[in-house]
């Protein structure tokens, strides 16, 4: 497999998943501004015409895009279902529920605007001061007394932890949500998460 990524972006959730499951992959860093591979300057748009990360080239040569789809594909390579409940189960539906929530209500609805230089100041303020607190309140209520979003660590936790890394750079103090902050700190010390975070931080 080949993972196309940008350091500390949403693609880090896939790196975490690969490390958690002990799966081999090649990693190709993408420059999101020029849409080129960092190693050789080749055109990333030839791989993913959307120009976004992650993208995954499977061992069969197929190209997958969109984080939630890639996360489930990689998780399903594990016959023991350690990172995703089996397809067709209520557990899998709940996993998809969380992946969709993180992708649409946290990642795109909030951080897209906070990190996009073209976003109007009013949009940034609304995302940071209104949208994000509501999302973090909801997540805090769900995680209170729980170790993970589901019954065990899953690709949804990898995705959520990745997005929580963006809070401080966006000027958001997680200390306002003690449950969420404590959860994030516990996840960050998992060996696979710490390895992925450390490697990608070194590339920034």
TrEMBL record:
Domain GST C-terminal, first and last residues per copy? 88-204
Listed PROSITE patterns = GST_CTER, GST_NTER
Where does the GST N-terminal domain start and stop, copy by copy? 1-82
Looking up InterPro entries in the UniProt record yields: Glutathione-S-Trfase_C-like (IPR010987), Glutathione-S-Trfase_C_sf (IPR036282), Glutathione_S-Trfase (IPR040079), Glutathione_S-Trfase_N (IPR004045), GST_C (IPR004046), Thioredoxin-like_sf (IPR036249)
Keyword annotations from UniProtKB, A to Z: Transferase
Q: What molecular function terms (GO) are annotated for this protein?
A: transferase activity
Question: Does Protein biosynthesis show up as a keyword for this record?
Answer: no
What species is this protein from?
Sphingorhabdus pulchriflava
User: What single Pfam family name could you report for this chain, choosing any that match?
Assistant: GST_N_2
Cite the CDD domains for this sequence: GST_C_Beta, GST_N_Beta
Q: Which domain of life is it from?
A: Bacteria
Spell out the protein name for this chain.
Glutathione S-transferase
Q: PANTHER family from the xrefs?
A: GLUTATHIONE S-TRANSFERASE GSTA, GLUTATHIONE S-TRANSFERASE-RELATED
Q: Does the keyword Metal-binding apply?
A: no
């Amino acid at each position: 497999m080949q993972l196309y990524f940008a350091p500390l972006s949403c693609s880090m959730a896939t790196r975490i998943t690969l490390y958690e499951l002990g799966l081999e992959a090649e990693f190709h860093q993408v420059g999101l501004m020029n849409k080129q591979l960092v190693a050789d300057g080749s055109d990333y748009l030839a791989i993913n015409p959307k120009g976004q990360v992650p993208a995954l080239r499977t061992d069969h040569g197929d190209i997958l895009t969109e984080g939630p789809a890639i996360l489930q594909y990689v998780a399903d390579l594990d016959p023991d279902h350690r990172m995703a409940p089996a397809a067709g189960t209520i557990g899998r539906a709940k996993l998809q529920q969380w992946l969709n929530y993180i992708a649409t209500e946290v990642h795109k609805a909030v951080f897209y605007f906070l990190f996009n230089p073209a976003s109007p100041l009013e949009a940034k303020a609304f995302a940071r001061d209104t949208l994000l607190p509501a999302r973090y309140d909801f997540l805090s209520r769900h995680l209170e007394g729980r170790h993970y979003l589901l019954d065990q660590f899953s690709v949804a936790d990898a995705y959520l932890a990745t997005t929580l890394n963006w809070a401080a750079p966006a000027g958001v103090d997680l200390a306002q949500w003690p449950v969420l902050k404590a959860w994030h700190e516990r996840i960050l010390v998992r060996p696979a998460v710490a390895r992925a975070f450390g490697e990608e931080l070194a590339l920034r």
